[in-house]
Amino acid sequence: MSQHPDTWRKPPFIANPLLRGAVYLGALAYFFWVAATMPIDWARVAQGIERAGRIFGGAFPPSFERSGLLIDGFLESLKIAILATVGGVALSIPIAFMAARNVAPLPVFYLGRAIIIIARSFHPVIVAIIFVKAVGFGPFAGVLTLVVYSIGFVAKMLAERIEEIDFGQVEAMRAAGAPYLSTLVYAIFPQIMPRQIGLTIYQLDSNLRASAVVGIVGAGGIGATLANAFGRYDYDFALAITIVIVGVILVSEAISGQIRKRIA
Q: What are the TM regions of this chain, as residue ranges (predicted)?
């Protein structure tokens, strides 16, 4: 009879059972310590539950009576998303070439990476607050915010794609004496174009979602309409706005998914 087991079991993450138990107990103790030391005011939590009940009670049924205001806010969000995507992608392409180690000199590479890191360091809401303070309330602050947001994502992903290209084509054109611009156009762009188109579509979808968030702090769009509805205690209208946002994001996700699938 064979001494070998018939089935395979995945070995534990930590082989020593005593050490494994100590790690689990330590993690559990840390969790309870964190929960016990969090400054939670349970009286305010109880009051919050009561307020949440009033909000949800006032939100049903959703009100679409002010559909004109809702459509205007959504169209403004769409304009913000399109402008920010075009501007962000246009700025991301040169930054991505700066941040690709295989095509950029070392000082330029560090500069490009620094720009990407700064663009990715802050949440769009924080960037929106800064631009609202700088240029005032409205959609222009939203466009600037989402341009920065787009650079942080598109430039990083595109730079990684440039570093993964087949460099033989680049070396062949350089050996033939082709200038730098021709090398970019004929050896690098054809290899990164499918990724660039996919990233642009994804970023437009992402900017449409983010425009609803940054609008809450005054950067225009449907988010500003939603914030005003909550400010006026129009919970039924706020729920109608939320339903439209979810519906639009679902449609946008389906369309962009189909386009990305076709160009993959």
A: 21-40, 80-104, 125-152, 172-189, 210-231, 237-255
Candidates 118, 93, 111, 55; CA nearest to 196 is 93
Tokens of 68: 């004109």
What tokens does 203 get?
């970023």
Per-residue pLDDT, averaged over 17-32, amounts to 92
Place of tokens 């400054």: 39
Domains annotated on the chain, with CATH:
74-263 (1.10.3720.10)
Q: State both tokens at 55.
A: 């909000």
115 pLDDT band (50/70/90 cuts)? Answer: very high
Reduce the DSSP state of residue 228 to 3 states and report it.
helix
Quote the pTM value.
0.77
234 token code pair? 């129009």
Q: Enter the tokens of residue 109.
A: 């590479």
Q: Kindly provide the b/e burial profile for residues 218-234, where b requires at least 16 CB atoms within 10 angstroms of the residue's own CB.
A: bbbbbbbbbbbbeeeeb
pLDDT grade for 263, boundaries at 50, 70 and 90: low
Cα(212)–Cα(201) distance, integer angstroms = 18
